[in-house]
Amino acid sequence: MVAQLGGQPIFILPEGTLRSTGKDAQARNIAAAKAVAETVRTTLGPKGMDKMLVDSIGDVTITNDGATILDEMEIEHPAAKMMVEVAKTQEDEVGDGTTTAVVITGELLKKAEGLIEQDVHPTVIIRGYRLAKNRALELLEKQAEAVTVNDFDVLEKIALTAMTGKSGESAKEGLAKLAVEAVKTVCTVENGKAVVYKDNIKIEKKQGGSLDDTELIRGIIIDKEVVHSNMPKKIKDAKIALIDVALEVKETETNAEIRITSPDQLQAFIEQESKMLKDMVSKVAASGCNVLFCQKGIDDLAQHYLAKNGILAARRVKKSDMEKLAKATGAKIATSLDELAKEDLGYAGLVEEMKVGGEDMIFVRECKNPKAVSIFVRGGTEHVVDEAKRAMDDAVLGVAAALEVGKVVTGGGSIEIEIARKLREYAESVGGKEQLAINAFAEAVEIIPRTLAESTGKDPIDILVDLRNKHEKGNSYFGVDVIHGTTSDMKVNGVIEPLKIKTQAIKSASEAAEMILRIDDVIQSKGGGAGKGMPPGMGGDMGNGDYGE
Protein backbone atom coordinates (compact mmCIF):
# COMPACT_ATOMS: atom_id res chain seq x y z
CA MET A 1 0.00 0.00 0.00
CA VAL A 2 1.63 3.23 -1.14
CA ALA A 3 0.63 6.86 -0.58
CA GLN A 4 2.21 9.73 -2.54
CA LEU A 5 3.51 12.82 -0.77
CA GLY A 6 5.18 15.41 -2.99
CA GLY A 7 6.40 12.73 -5.37
CA GLN A 8 7.83 10.71 -2.47
CA PRO A 9 6.20 7.27 -1.95
CA ILE A 10 5.24 6.44 1.65
CA PHE A 11 4.96 2.73 2.53
CA ILE A 12 2.17 2.13 5.04
CA LEU A 13 1.79 -1.64 4.84
CA PRO A 14 4.71 -4.07 4.64
CA GLU A 15 5.86 -5.44 1.31
CA GLY A 16 4.00 -8.53 0.13
CA THR A 17 0.67 -7.48 1.69
CA LEU A 18 -2.25 -8.43 -0.52
CA ARG A 19 -5.12 -6.01 -0.86
CA SER A 20 -8.32 -5.76 -2.85
CA THR A 21 -10.71 -2.83 -2.65
CA GLY A 22 -14.12 -1.63 -3.76
CA LYS A 23 -16.20 -3.73 -6.12
CA ASP A 24 -13.30 -6.13 -6.61
CA ALA A 25 -13.24 -6.99 -2.88
CA GLN A 26 -17.02 -7.37 -2.79
CA ALA A 27 -17.06 -9.56 -5.87
CA ARG A 28 -14.44 -11.91 -4.42
CA ASN A 29 -16.13 -12.15 -1.03
CA ILE A 30 -19.50 -12.81 -2.64
CA ALA A 31 -17.97 -15.44 -4.94
CA ALA A 32 -16.47 -17.26 -1.94
CA ALA A 33 -19.73 -17.17 0.03
CA LYS A 34 -21.74 -18.30 -3.00
CA ALA A 35 -19.36 -21.22 -3.51
CA VAL A 36 -19.97 -22.43 0.06
CA ALA A 37 -23.76 -22.10 -0.35
CA GLU A 38 -23.59 -23.98 -3.65
CA THR A 39 -21.66 -26.82 -1.98
CA VAL A 40 -24.46 -27.57 0.50
CA ARG A 41 -27.43 -26.50 -1.64
CA THR A 42 -27.91 -29.88 -3.33
CA THR A 43 -28.31 -31.59 0.06
CA LEU A 44 -31.61 -29.80 0.76
CA GLY A 45 -34.82 -31.75 1.16
CA PRO A 46 -35.88 -35.39 1.17
CA LYS A 47 -34.31 -36.04 -2.24
CA GLY A 48 -31.14 -34.10 -1.38
CA MET A 49 -27.83 -35.65 -2.40
CA ASP A 50 -25.14 -36.74 0.07
CA LYS A 51 -21.56 -35.54 0.31
CA MET A 52 -18.56 -37.74 0.95
CA LEU A 53 -15.96 -35.94 3.03
CA VAL A 54 -12.47 -37.39 3.30
CA ASP A 55 -10.15 -35.84 5.89
CA SER A 56 -6.36 -35.60 5.87
CA ILE A 57 -5.91 -39.05 7.42
CA GLY A 58 -8.38 -40.69 5.07
CA ASP A 59 -11.39 -40.99 7.41
CA VAL A 60 -14.63 -40.88 5.45
CA THR A 61 -17.88 -39.15 6.49
CA ILE A 62 -20.98 -39.52 4.31
CA THR A 63 -23.73 -37.06 5.19
CA ASN A 64 -26.21 -34.50 3.92
CA ASP A 65 -26.28 -32.54 7.17
CA GLY A 66 -25.26 -28.95 6.33
CA ALA A 67 -23.54 -28.26 9.66
CA THR A 68 -21.50 -31.47 9.49
CA ILE A 69 -20.37 -30.76 5.90
CA LEU A 70 -19.21 -27.22 6.68
CA ASP A 71 -17.59 -28.38 9.91
CA GLU A 72 -15.54 -31.05 8.13
CA MET A 73 -14.48 -28.87 5.19
CA GLU A 74 -11.26 -26.99 5.87
CA ILE A 75 -12.42 -23.55 4.76
CA GLU A 76 -9.76 -20.86 4.58
CA HIS A 77 -11.36 -17.88 2.84
CA PRO A 78 -12.48 -15.28 5.42
CA ALA A 79 -15.85 -14.57 3.75
CA ALA A 80 -16.50 -18.30 3.39
CA LYS A 81 -15.77 -18.72 7.11
CA MET A 82 -18.66 -16.36 7.87
CA MET A 83 -20.96 -18.84 6.11
CA VAL A 84 -19.73 -21.55 8.45
CA GLU A 85 -20.63 -19.27 11.37
CA VAL A 86 -24.17 -18.96 10.00
CA ALA A 87 -24.47 -22.77 10.03
CA LYS A 88 -22.99 -23.02 13.53
CA THR A 89 -25.42 -20.42 14.92
CA GLN A 90 -28.35 -22.25 13.35
CA GLU A 91 -27.10 -25.59 14.74
CA ASP A 92 -26.62 -24.19 18.27
CA GLU A 93 -29.88 -22.25 18.37
CA VAL A 94 -32.26 -24.68 16.67
CA GLY A 95 -30.36 -27.82 15.71
CA ASP A 96 -31.87 -28.05 12.23
CA GLY A 97 -32.21 -25.87 9.13
CA THR A 98 -28.47 -25.27 8.70
CA THR A 99 -28.59 -25.86 4.95
CA THR A 100 -31.58 -23.49 4.64
CA ALA A 101 -29.73 -20.70 6.47
CA VAL A 102 -26.55 -21.04 4.40
CA VAL A 103 -28.39 -21.32 1.07
CA ILE A 104 -30.48 -18.19 1.76
CA THR A 105 -27.31 -16.26 2.72
CA GLY A 106 -25.63 -17.27 -0.55
CA GLU A 107 -28.69 -16.28 -2.56
CA LEU A 108 -29.03 -12.88 -0.81
CA LEU A 109 -25.42 -12.14 -1.78
CA LYS A 110 -25.97 -13.36 -5.35
CA LYS A 111 -28.96 -11.00 -5.76
CA ALA A 112 -27.00 -8.17 -4.12
CA GLU A 113 -24.20 -8.70 -6.64
CA GLY A 114 -26.65 -8.08 -9.48
CA LEU A 115 -27.78 -4.84 -7.85
CA ILE A 116 -24.19 -3.66 -7.23
CA GLU A 117 -23.50 -4.19 -10.94
CA GLN A 118 -26.47 -1.88 -11.65
CA ASP A 119 -24.71 0.73 -9.46
CA VAL A 120 -27.02 0.39 -6.46
CA HIS A 121 -24.90 1.30 -3.43
CA PRO A 122 -24.35 -1.50 -0.87
CA THR A 123 -25.74 0.78 1.88
CA VAL A 124 -29.07 1.01 0.02
CA ILE A 125 -29.13 -2.79 -0.45
CA ILE A 126 -28.43 -3.31 3.26
CA ARG A 127 -31.23 -0.89 4.22
CA GLY A 128 -33.65 -2.72 1.90
CA TYR A 129 -32.58 -6.11 3.22
CA ARG A 130 -33.13 -4.95 6.79
CA LEU A 131 -36.66 -3.73 6.00
CA ALA A 132 -37.37 -7.02 4.21
CA LYS A 133 -36.01 -9.09 7.11
CA ASN A 134 -38.23 -7.32 9.68
CA ARG A 135 -41.25 -7.68 7.43
CA ALA A 136 -40.50 -11.36 6.79
CA LEU A 137 -40.27 -12.08 10.54
CA GLU A 138 -43.65 -10.38 11.08
CA LEU A 139 -45.19 -12.43 8.27
CA LEU A 140 -43.75 -15.67 9.68
CA GLU A 141 -45.26 -14.91 13.07
CA LYS A 142 -48.68 -14.33 11.44
CA GLN A 143 -48.55 -17.52 9.36
CA ALA A 144 -47.46 -19.73 12.26
CA GLU A 145 -49.85 -21.94 14.20
CA ALA A 146 -49.74 -22.85 17.89
CA VAL A 147 -48.50 -26.23 19.15
CA THR A 148 -48.37 -27.67 22.68
CA VAL A 149 -46.72 -30.64 24.35
CA ASN A 150 -49.98 -32.61 24.03
CA ASP A 151 -50.19 -32.32 20.22
CA PHE A 152 -48.46 -35.67 19.76
CA ASP A 153 -49.37 -36.00 16.05
CA VAL A 154 -48.03 -32.57 15.13
CA LEU A 155 -44.81 -33.13 17.09
CA GLU A 156 -44.33 -36.48 15.37
CA LYS A 157 -44.72 -34.81 11.97
CA ILE A 158 -42.06 -32.26 12.97
CA ALA A 159 -39.68 -35.09 13.89
CA LEU A 160 -40.44 -36.90 10.61
CA THR A 161 -39.85 -33.73 8.58
CA ALA A 162 -36.50 -33.16 10.34
CA MET A 163 -35.39 -36.73 9.59
CA THR A 164 -36.61 -36.95 5.99
CA GLY A 165 -33.68 -37.14 3.61
CA LYS A 166 -31.30 -38.58 6.18
CA SER A 167 -30.30 -42.22 5.84
CA GLY A 168 -32.55 -43.37 8.68
CA GLU A 169 -35.45 -43.27 6.20
CA SER A 170 -36.43 -46.93 6.57
CA ALA A 171 -37.18 -46.76 10.29
CA LYS A 172 -38.09 -43.09 10.53
CA GLU A 173 -41.65 -43.57 11.90
CA GLY A 174 -40.34 -45.48 14.89
CA LEU A 175 -37.44 -43.08 15.40
CA ALA A 176 -39.76 -40.04 15.25
CA LYS A 177 -41.98 -41.53 17.97
CA LEU A 178 -38.90 -42.07 20.16
CA ALA A 179 -37.75 -38.47 19.61
CA VAL A 180 -41.15 -37.05 20.61
CA GLU A 181 -41.41 -39.38 23.61
CA ALA A 182 -37.93 -38.33 24.79
CA VAL A 183 -38.69 -34.61 24.51
CA LYS A 184 -42.08 -35.00 26.23
CA THR A 185 -40.45 -36.88 29.11
CA VAL A 186 -37.86 -34.20 29.89
CA CYS A 187 -40.07 -31.20 29.07
CA THR A 188 -40.87 -28.98 32.06
CA VAL A 189 -43.17 -25.98 32.32
CA GLU A 190 -41.64 -22.77 33.66
CA ASN A 191 -43.75 -19.59 33.93
CA GLY A 192 -46.40 -21.18 31.72
CA LYS A 193 -43.85 -21.90 28.97
CA ALA A 194 -42.56 -25.30 27.88
CA VAL A 195 -38.83 -25.59 28.49
CA VAL A 196 -36.67 -28.41 27.12
CA TYR A 197 -33.05 -28.65 28.19
CA LYS A 198 -31.48 -30.47 25.26
CA ASP A 199 -28.62 -31.75 27.43
CA ASN A 200 -31.11 -33.92 29.33
CA ILE A 201 -31.53 -36.14 26.28
CA LYS A 202 -28.42 -38.26 25.80
CA ILE A 203 -28.06 -39.86 22.39
CA GLU A 204 -25.69 -42.86 22.49
CA LYS A 205 -24.74 -44.83 19.39
CA LYS A 206 -23.29 -48.29 18.93
CA GLN A 207 -23.02 -50.18 15.68
CA GLY A 208 -24.67 -53.57 15.51
CA GLY A 209 -28.28 -54.70 15.15
CA SER A 210 -30.41 -52.54 12.87
CA LEU A 211 -32.06 -49.13 13.01
CA ASP A 212 -35.23 -50.85 14.26
CA ASP A 213 -33.33 -51.84 17.43
CA THR A 214 -32.97 -48.18 18.42
CA GLU A 215 -34.71 -47.69 21.77
CA LEU A 216 -35.63 -45.02 24.27
CA ILE A 217 -34.32 -45.76 27.74
CA ARG A 218 -36.19 -44.09 30.56
CA GLY A 219 -32.91 -43.54 32.32
CA ILE A 220 -29.26 -43.25 31.37
CA ILE A 221 -26.66 -45.35 29.56
CA ILE A 222 -23.19 -45.17 31.08
CA ASP A 223 -20.31 -46.17 28.82
CA LYS A 224 -18.45 -47.88 31.68
CA GLU A 225 -18.16 -51.41 32.99
CA VAL A 226 -18.79 -52.84 36.45
CA VAL A 227 -15.46 -52.46 38.28
CA HIS A 228 -15.18 -55.93 39.87
CA SER A 229 -15.92 -59.36 38.44
CA ASN A 230 -17.59 -60.56 41.67
CA MET A 231 -20.15 -57.77 41.67
CA PRO A 232 -23.72 -58.50 40.53
CA LYS A 233 -24.27 -57.62 36.85
CA LYS A 234 -28.01 -57.04 37.17
CA ILE A 235 -29.98 -55.41 39.99
CA LYS A 236 -33.74 -54.95 40.11
CA ASP A 237 -35.28 -52.17 42.23
CA ALA A 238 -31.93 -50.42 42.33
CA LYS A 239 -31.20 -47.91 45.08
CA ILE A 240 -28.56 -45.72 43.55
CA ALA A 241 -25.87 -43.71 45.32
CA LEU A 242 -23.94 -41.03 43.42
CA ILE A 243 -20.70 -39.90 45.02
CA ASP A 244 -18.12 -37.35 44.00
CA VAL A 245 -15.42 -38.62 46.33
CA ALA A 246 -12.65 -41.18 45.77
CA LEU A 247 -12.87 -44.52 47.59
CA GLU A 248 -9.10 -44.50 47.98
CA VAL A 249 -6.66 -43.67 50.74
CA LYS A 250 -5.56 -40.14 50.01
CA GLU A 251 -2.01 -38.97 50.23
CA THR A 252 -1.48 -36.27 52.81
CA GLU A 253 -1.71 -32.68 51.67
CA THR A 254 1.65 -31.80 53.32
CA ASN A 255 4.90 -33.50 52.43
CA ALA A 256 5.17 -35.99 55.24
CA GLU A 257 7.71 -38.76 55.69
CA ILE A 258 6.72 -41.96 57.46
CA ARG A 259 9.58 -44.00 58.86
CA ILE A 260 8.93 -47.63 59.56
CA THR A 261 11.60 -49.47 61.52
CA SER A 262 10.06 -52.88 62.09
CA PRO A 263 7.88 -55.38 60.19
CA ASP A 264 5.14 -54.98 62.86
CA GLN A 265 4.86 -51.29 62.10
CA LEU A 266 4.58 -52.01 58.37
CA GLN A 267 1.87 -54.58 59.06
CA ALA A 268 0.00 -52.07 61.23
CA PHE A 269 0.32 -49.43 58.52
CA ILE A 270 -1.13 -51.76 55.85
CA GLU A 271 -3.94 -52.86 58.17
CA GLN A 272 -4.74 -49.22 58.92
CA GLU A 273 -5.08 -48.48 55.19
CA SER A 274 -7.40 -51.45 54.61
CA LYS A 275 -9.44 -50.47 57.72
CA MET A 276 -9.90 -46.96 56.28
CA LEU A 277 -11.13 -48.43 52.99
CA LYS A 278 -13.41 -50.86 54.83
CA ASP A 279 -14.88 -47.94 56.81
CA MET A 280 -15.54 -46.01 53.62
CA VAL A 281 -17.37 -48.97 52.08
CA SER A 282 -19.37 -49.59 55.27
CA LYS A 283 -20.56 -45.94 55.14
CA VAL A 284 -21.70 -46.53 51.54
CA ALA A 285 -23.41 -49.80 52.50
CA ALA A 286 -25.04 -48.19 55.55
CA SER A 287 -26.98 -45.84 53.26
CA GLY A 288 -28.82 -48.91 51.93
CA CYS A 289 -27.66 -48.53 48.33
CA ASN A 290 -27.09 -51.50 46.04
CA VAL A 291 -25.70 -49.51 43.07
CA LEU A 292 -22.85 -47.01 43.29
CA PHE A 293 -21.64 -44.55 40.65
CA CYS A 294 -18.42 -42.85 41.61
CA GLN A 295 -17.06 -39.80 39.78
CA LYS A 296 -13.53 -40.54 41.02
CA GLY A 297 -11.46 -43.68 41.55
CA ILE A 298 -12.26 -46.82 43.58
CA ASP A 299 -9.31 -48.69 45.13
CA ASP A 300 -8.95 -52.43 44.34
CA LEU A 301 -9.51 -53.36 47.99
CA ALA A 302 -12.58 -51.09 48.18
CA GLN A 303 -13.92 -52.87 45.07
CA HIS A 304 -13.52 -56.18 46.87
CA TYR A 305 -15.44 -54.93 49.94
CA LEU A 306 -18.19 -53.45 47.72
CA ALA A 307 -18.52 -56.78 45.90
CA LYS A 308 -18.83 -58.56 49.26
CA ASN A 309 -21.71 -56.22 50.12
CA GLY A 310 -23.42 -57.11 46.81
CA ILE A 311 -23.09 -53.56 45.48
CA LEU A 312 -22.75 -52.96 41.72
CA ALA A 313 -20.25 -50.12 41.22
CA ALA A 314 -18.75 -48.06 38.37
CA ARG A 315 -15.90 -45.59 38.71
CA ARG A 316 -14.66 -42.47 36.94
CA VAL A 317 -18.13 -41.69 35.60
CA LYS A 318 -18.15 -38.38 33.67
CA LYS A 319 -19.48 -35.32 35.50
CA SER A 320 -22.12 -34.74 32.80
CA ASP A 321 -23.31 -38.36 33.18
CA MET A 322 -23.46 -37.97 36.96
CA GLU A 323 -25.70 -34.92 36.56
CA LYS A 324 -27.95 -36.80 34.13
CA LEU A 325 -28.11 -39.77 36.54
CA ALA A 326 -29.21 -37.40 39.30
CA LYS A 327 -31.99 -36.01 37.08
CA ALA A 328 -33.10 -39.44 35.91
CA THR A 329 -33.06 -41.31 39.23
CA GLY A 330 -33.77 -38.48 41.66
CA ALA A 331 -30.49 -39.13 43.53
CA LYS A 332 -28.40 -36.38 45.06
CA ILE A 333 -24.66 -36.30 44.37
CA ALA A 334 -22.80 -36.65 47.68
CA THR A 335 -19.39 -35.01 48.06
CA SER A 336 -18.74 -36.59 51.46
CA LEU A 337 -19.35 -40.17 52.58
CA ASP A 338 -20.41 -38.98 56.05
CA GLU A 339 -23.29 -37.08 54.46
CA LEU A 340 -24.52 -39.98 52.32
CA ALA A 341 -27.98 -40.76 53.71
CA LYS A 342 -30.88 -42.94 52.66
CA GLU A 343 -32.84 -39.96 51.31
CA ASP A 344 -29.96 -39.11 48.92
CA LEU A 345 -30.43 -42.35 47.00
CA GLY A 346 -32.11 -42.52 43.61
CA TYR A 347 -34.31 -45.24 42.19
CA ALA A 348 -34.29 -47.26 38.97
CA GLY A 349 -36.36 -50.34 38.17
CA LEU A 350 -33.35 -52.10 36.66
CA VAL A 351 -29.60 -51.53 36.46
CA GLU A 352 -27.69 -54.00 34.31
CA GLU A 353 -24.39 -54.40 32.53
CA MET A 354 -24.74 -55.52 28.93
CA LYS A 355 -22.25 -56.25 26.19
CA VAL A 356 -23.09 -54.12 23.17
CA GLY A 357 -20.96 -54.09 20.04
CA GLY A 358 -18.15 -55.84 21.92
CA GLU A 359 -18.12 -53.30 24.77
CA ASP A 360 -19.63 -53.42 28.24
CA MET A 361 -22.11 -50.67 29.08
CA ILE A 362 -24.27 -50.07 32.13
CA PHE A 363 -27.96 -49.42 31.50
CA VAL A 364 -29.98 -47.62 34.17
CA ARG A 365 -33.60 -48.27 33.16
CA GLU A 366 -37.21 -47.81 34.28
CA CYS A 367 -36.71 -44.68 36.36
CA LYS A 368 -39.80 -43.09 37.89
CA ASN A 369 -40.63 -39.80 36.13
CA PRO A 370 -37.07 -39.25 34.82
CA LYS A 371 -36.02 -35.72 33.87
CA ALA A 372 -33.14 -37.07 31.79
CA VAL A 373 -33.40 -39.92 29.27
CA SER A 374 -31.23 -41.72 26.71
CA ILE A 375 -31.83 -42.73 23.13
CA PHE A 376 -29.74 -45.74 22.14
CA VAL A 377 -29.16 -45.65 18.38
CA ARG A 378 -28.23 -48.92 16.60
CA GLY A 379 -27.45 -49.64 12.96
CA GLY A 380 -25.69 -52.05 10.66
CA THR A 381 -22.50 -50.13 9.91
CA GLU A 382 -20.58 -47.24 11.43
CA HIS A 383 -21.70 -44.80 8.71
CA VAL A 384 -25.36 -45.80 9.14
CA VAL A 385 -25.17 -45.31 12.92
CA ASP A 386 -23.43 -41.94 12.57
CA GLU A 387 -26.00 -40.62 10.12
CA ALA A 388 -28.89 -42.05 12.17
CA LYS A 389 -27.54 -40.25 15.24
CA ARG A 390 -27.41 -36.98 13.28
CA ALA A 391 -31.01 -37.57 12.11
CA MET A 392 -32.04 -38.26 15.71
CA ASP A 393 -30.30 -35.08 16.88
CA ASP A 394 -32.22 -33.06 14.29
CA ALA A 395 -35.53 -34.69 15.24
CA VAL A 396 -35.07 -34.14 18.98
CA LEU A 397 -33.90 -30.55 18.54
CA GLY A 398 -36.68 -29.82 16.04
CA VAL A 399 -39.40 -30.99 18.46
CA ALA A 400 -37.72 -29.07 21.30
CA ALA A 401 -37.55 -25.88 19.18
CA ALA A 402 -41.24 -26.20 18.28
CA LEU A 403 -42.26 -26.51 21.93
CA GLU A 404 -39.97 -23.69 23.08
CA VAL A 405 -41.58 -21.11 20.79
CA GLY A 406 -44.91 -22.95 20.75
CA LYS A 407 -45.46 -22.31 17.03
CA VAL A 408 -45.05 -24.23 13.77
CA VAL A 409 -45.25 -23.52 10.03
CA THR A 410 -45.71 -25.73 6.97
CA GLY A 411 -42.57 -26.88 5.14
CA GLY A 412 -41.82 -27.91 1.57
CA GLY A 413 -41.05 -24.32 0.55
CA SER A 414 -44.69 -23.26 1.13
CA ILE A 415 -43.89 -20.63 3.77
CA GLU A 416 -41.05 -19.20 1.63
CA ILE A 417 -43.31 -18.77 -1.41
CA GLU A 418 -45.91 -17.03 0.77
CA ILE A 419 -43.33 -14.68 2.32
CA ALA A 420 -41.85 -13.86 -1.09
CA ARG A 421 -45.32 -13.04 -2.44
CA LYS A 422 -46.12 -10.70 0.45
CA LEU A 423 -42.66 -9.09 0.36
CA ARG A 424 -43.23 -8.12 -3.29
CA GLU A 425 -46.48 -6.38 -2.27
CA TYR A 426 -44.60 -4.67 0.57
CA ALA A 427 -41.82 -3.51 -1.80
CA GLU A 428 -44.31 -1.48 -3.82
CA SER A 429 -45.41 0.41 -0.71
CA VAL A 430 -41.79 1.24 0.20
CA GLY A 431 -40.71 2.54 -3.21
CA GLY A 432 -37.30 4.08 -3.95
CA LYS A 433 -34.17 2.04 -4.61
CA GLU A 434 -34.86 0.03 -1.44
CA GLN A 435 -37.74 -1.50 -3.37
CA LEU A 436 -35.18 -3.26 -5.59
CA ALA A 437 -33.44 -4.73 -2.54
CA ILE A 438 -36.73 -5.93 -1.00
CA ASN A 439 -37.67 -7.63 -4.28
CA ALA A 440 -34.18 -9.19 -4.36
CA PHE A 441 -34.76 -10.49 -0.80
CA ALA A 442 -38.09 -12.00 -1.91
CA GLU A 443 -36.41 -13.77 -4.83
CA ALA A 444 -33.58 -14.99 -2.58
CA VAL A 445 -36.03 -16.59 -0.13
CA GLU A 446 -37.57 -18.49 -3.06
CA ILE A 447 -34.29 -20.39 -3.50
CA ILE A 448 -35.64 -22.96 -1.00
CA PRO A 449 -38.70 -24.06 -3.05
CA ARG A 450 -36.59 -23.72 -6.23
CA THR A 451 -33.92 -26.09 -4.90
CA LEU A 452 -36.57 -28.55 -3.70
CA ALA A 453 -38.17 -28.40 -7.16
CA GLU A 454 -34.79 -29.07 -8.80
CA SER A 455 -34.23 -32.14 -6.63
CA THR A 456 -37.44 -33.74 -7.97
CA GLY A 457 -35.84 -34.18 -11.40
CA LYS A 458 -38.79 -32.38 -13.06
CA ASP A 459 -38.73 -28.88 -14.58
CA PRO A 460 -38.32 -26.53 -11.57
CA ILE A 461 -39.80 -23.52 -13.42
CA ASP A 462 -43.11 -25.34 -14.05
CA ILE A 463 -43.35 -26.29 -10.37
CA LEU A 464 -42.54 -22.74 -9.19
CA VAL A 465 -45.06 -21.13 -11.55
CA ASP A 466 -47.73 -23.58 -10.37
CA LEU A 467 -46.87 -22.80 -6.73
CA ARG A 468 -47.10 -19.05 -7.25
CA ASN A 469 -50.50 -19.46 -8.92
CA LYS A 470 -51.79 -21.57 -6.03
CA HIS A 471 -50.59 -19.00 -3.47
CA GLU A 472 -52.13 -16.13 -5.44
CA LYS A 473 -55.46 -17.98 -5.14
CA GLY A 474 -55.05 -18.17 -1.36
CA ASN A 475 -53.75 -21.75 -1.02
CA SER A 476 -50.93 -20.68 1.33
CA TYR A 477 -50.13 -24.25 2.51
CA PHE A 478 -49.09 -25.44 -0.95
CA GLY A 479 -45.44 -26.44 -1.33
CA VAL A 480 -43.19 -28.72 -3.38
CA ASP A 481 -44.14 -32.39 -3.10
CA VAL A 482 -40.62 -33.66 -3.68
CA ILE A 483 -41.54 -37.35 -3.62
CA HIS A 484 -44.08 -37.09 -6.46
CA GLY A 485 -42.52 -34.14 -8.29
CA THR A 486 -45.65 -31.97 -8.06
CA THR A 487 -47.16 -29.33 -5.77
CA SER A 488 -49.46 -30.27 -2.91
CA ASP A 489 -50.90 -29.14 0.42
CA MET A 490 -48.09 -29.48 2.97
CA LYS A 491 -50.47 -29.41 5.92
CA VAL A 492 -52.32 -32.42 4.56
CA ASN A 493 -49.00 -34.15 3.82
CA GLY A 494 -47.82 -33.52 7.37
CA VAL A 495 -44.70 -31.57 6.37
CA ILE A 496 -44.39 -29.32 9.41
CA GLU A 497 -41.43 -27.41 10.80
CA PRO A 498 -40.81 -25.35 13.95
CA LEU A 499 -41.21 -21.61 13.42
CA LYS A 500 -37.84 -21.10 15.11
CA ILE A 501 -36.00 -22.79 12.21
CA LYS A 502 -37.34 -20.22 9.76
CA THR A 503 -36.97 -17.11 11.94
CA GLN A 504 -33.41 -18.01 12.93
CA ALA A 505 -32.43 -18.82 9.33
CA ILE A 506 -33.73 -15.49 8.06
CA LYS A 507 -32.11 -13.51 10.90
CA SER A 508 -28.72 -15.22 10.48
CA ALA A 509 -28.80 -15.10 6.68
CA SER A 510 -29.64 -11.40 6.41
CA GLU A 511 -27.14 -10.40 9.12
CA ALA A 512 -24.33 -12.39 7.49
CA ALA A 513 -25.18 -11.00 4.05
CA GLU A 514 -25.19 -7.44 5.45
CA MET A 515 -21.80 -8.02 7.06
CA ILE A 516 -20.21 -9.33 3.86
CA LEU A 517 -21.73 -6.50 1.77
CA ARG A 518 -20.26 -3.86 4.10
CA ILE A 519 -16.70 -5.02 3.37
CA ASP A 520 -15.08 -2.95 0.61
CA ASP A 521 -11.44 -3.57 1.47
CA VAL A 522 -9.62 -6.85 2.12
CA ILE A 523 -6.08 -6.42 3.44
CA GLN A 524 -4.18 -9.63 3.95
CA SER A 525 -0.75 -9.71 5.54
CA LYS A 526 1.83 -11.93 3.90
CA GLY A 527 2.03 -14.21 6.94
CA GLY A 528 -1.47 -15.66 6.35
CA GLY A 529 -1.64 -19.00 4.57
CA ALA A 530 -4.23 -17.72 2.16
CA GLY A 531 -6.47 -20.12 0.41
CA LYS A 532 -4.73 -23.36 1.35
CA GLY A 533 -7.13 -26.17 2.07
CA MET A 534 -9.87 -24.60 -0.03
CA PRO A 535 -12.01 -27.24 -1.69
CA PRO A 536 -11.55 -27.29 -5.47
CA GLY A 537 -13.96 -25.18 -7.47
CA MET A 538 -14.48 -22.64 -4.68
CA GLY A 539 -15.09 -19.93 -7.24
CA GLY A 540 -12.70 -17.65 -9.16
CA ASP A 541 -8.99 -17.77 -8.40
CA MET A 542 -9.32 -18.17 -4.64
CA GLY A 543 -8.09 -21.73 -4.66
CA ASN A 544 -4.48 -20.65 -5.12
CA GLY A 545 -4.41 -18.14 -2.32
CA ASP A 546 -4.36 -14.85 -4.30
CA TYR A 547 -7.83 -13.65 -3.35
CA GLY A 548 -6.50 -10.48 -1.75
CA GLU A 549 -4.33 -9.13 -4.57
List its traits.
GROEL, domain 2, alpha+beta, 17 helices, 549 residues, GroEL
The number of helical elements comes to 17
Number of strand segments: 23
For the largest beta-sheet, the strand count, sense and barrel status come to: 7 strands, mixed
Q: And the CATH topology of the largest domain?
A: GROEL, domain 1
CATH C-level class of the largest domain is Mainly Alpha
- The tally of structural domains comes to 3
Give average pLDDT, whole number: 81
Gap between N and C termini, in Å?
Answer: 11 Å
**Low-confidence runs (pLDDT<50, min 5 residues)?**
528-549
Set out the fold topology.
Layout: E1 2-5, E2 8-11, E3 18-21, H1 22-41, E4 51-54, E5 60-63, H2 66-72, H3 78-93, H4 98-117, H5 122-143, E6 145-146, H6 152-163, H7 172-186, E7 188-190, E8 193-195, E9 201-207, E10 215-217, E11 220-222, E12 234-243, H8 263-286, E13 291-294, H9 300-308, E14 312-314, H10 319-329, E15 333-334, E16 346-356, E17 359-365, E18 373-379, H11 382-405, E19 407-410, H12 414-430, H13 434-445, H14 447-455, H15 460-472, E20 478-481, E21 486-489, H16 490-493, E22 496-498, H17 499-518, E23 521-524
Parallel strand pairs: 9-18, 12-13, 12-15, 13-14
Antiparallel strand pairs: 1-2, 3-23, 4-5, 6-19, 7-8, 10-18, 11-17, 12-16, 16-17, 19-22, 20-21
Descriptive notes:
With 549 residues, this protein is α+β, with helices and mostly antiparallel strands. The protein has three domains: 2-146 and 410-530, GROEL, domain 1 (Orthogonal Bundle), CATH 1.10.560.10; 150-201 and 380-405, TCP-1-like chaperonin intermediate domain (GROEL, domain 2), CATH 3.30.260.10; 220-249 and 262-369, GroEL. It is 46% helix and 19% strand. Strands 11, 12, 13, 14, 15, 16 and 17 form a seven-stranded mixed β-sheet that branches. Strand 4 and strand 5 (60-63) form a beta hairpin. Helix 2 crosses helix 3. The relative contact order is 0.19.
